[in-house]
Amino acid sequence: MVRIIVRRLLQMVVTLIALSALIFFWLRSLPGGPVEALLGERATPERRELLTKALGYDQPLWVQYGRFVKRVLVGNFGNSIRSGDPVTDVIGRAFPATIELSVAALIIAVGLGIPLGYLAARFHGRLLDNGTIIGTLIGVSVPIFFLGYLLKQWFTQDLHWFPPSGRLAPTMEATHVTGLFVLDGLLTREFDASADALWHLILPAVTLATIPLAVIVRITRASVLDVLNEDYVRTAEAKGLRTKTIRHRHVLRNALLPVVTTIGLQTGALLAGAVLTEKVYNWGGLGTLIADSITGSRDYPILQAIILLAALVFVSVNLLVDLSYAVIDPRVRVR
C-alpha cells in the first residue's frame, strides 16, 4: 500500500510540473494577449510598450516561466491582470461555488447511476433494461448547455418550480463561513438560507450530473453483466447461498472496480462541464471565472492557477481511486 502511494505521489508531481510548463507556454502562444485586451481601442505603441514592461512580458519566456515556478512553490500565483487582486483571493471566492455544484452533481450521478446500472443488469433484456439504455444514450448525446437552457425554460419559466439563476435569492440574508451555501446555513443554523441555497442548487446539479450519470449507468450495467457470467457466481448459486449474499458479496463488489475508475474520470469531466453549466445558471464559480478570463482580459495568472488547481483535484481524486482498489479487492494489495 505504501509503495502504491509513493509511486502515485511521484507521478502527481511529474504530471503537475509538465502541465505547468504546457499551460504557461500554450497560453502565451494564443493570438492577442492581456496587453491588447486591457488597452483595447486605446492601444498605441507607447502604451503597449509601457504595459508590457509593467507586466513583465518583455522578458524571455524561459525567464518568465522561471519566475512563475518560483512564485508557485511558495503559494504565490501573482495578481489578477483584470482586477489587481491576488489570484488566491479571486479563486478562493469562486472555488467553493464550483465545489458545491460538482459535489452535488457527483452525489446525484453516483447515487442514481450505480443502482440503475445494477437493476438494468439484473433485468437484462426487459423493459427496465431497454429503457435505461435509451435514457443513457439520450443523456450522453444532449449537450450540457442545450440541456441547461431546456431545463431552465421548463422548470423556471413555464412551471416556476425552481429559481432561474444564482446561488441565493437576492433578498436572502445569510452568513457565509465556508462559501458552501448549503453547508453554511446548517453550520450557522440559518436553515431558511440553507433550504434556499439547496433549491437554487438542484437544477444546475441535475444538468451537470446528466452525462456522468449516463456513463456510470452504462459501465455499472456492463460490469455487473460480466460478473454474473463468472464461474464463481454460478458456483455460489450451486452451493445454495442466499441470493442477497451472492448479489452483494460476489456480484456487486467485484463489479465495482471499473465503476470506481469511471467515477474518478468523471470527476474531471464535472469540472470541465461546470464551465457551461455555470454560465447558463449564472453560478459564479470557477467556470464563470475561466470564461471571463479567456474572453475578457486574457488573465494569464487566473487561467494558470485554475488549470493547475483543476489538475491537482483530478490527480488527487485518481489517487483516492487507486487506493480504493485495495479496499474493494484484496488481491490488489498483494500485487
Tell me the layout of helices and strands.
Elements: H1 2-27, H2 34-39, H3 45-55, H4 61-73, H5 87-122, H6 127-141, H7 144-158, H8 181-187, H9 191-228, H10 231-238, H11 243-281, H12 286-297, H13 300-328
Helix pairs in contact: 1-13, 5-6, 5-9, 5-11, 5-13, 6-9, 7-9, 7-11, 8-9, 9-11, 10-11, 11-12, 11-13, 12-13
Q: Could you please describe the fold and organization of this structure?
A:
By secondary structure, the chain is mainly α. The chain has 2 domains: 2-73, no CATH class; 93-334, MetI-like (MetI-like fold, Orthogonal Bundle). It has 13 helices and no strands. It has helices spanning 2-27, 34-39, 45-55, 61-73, 87-122, 127-141, 144-158, 181-187, 191-228, 231-238, 243-281, 286-297, 300-328. Helix 7 packs across helix 11 (243-281). The chain starts with a helix and ends in a 7-residue tail after the last helix.
Shape call: globular
Low-confidence stretches: none
- The CATH superfamily name of the largest domain is MetI-like
Oligomer: single chain
β-strand amount: under 5%
Mean of pLDDT: 80
Helical content, roughly?
over 70%
| Helix-strand makeup class | mainly alpha
CATH topology category name of the largest domain:
MetI-like fold
State the major sheet.
Answer: none
Provide a brief overview of the structure:
With 335 residues, the protein is an all-alpha fold. It has helices at 2-27, 34-39, 45-55, 61-73, 87-122, 127-141, 144-158, 181-187, 191-228, 231-238, 243-281, 286-297, 300-328.
Distinctive features:
single chain; 13 helices; mainly alpha; 76% helix
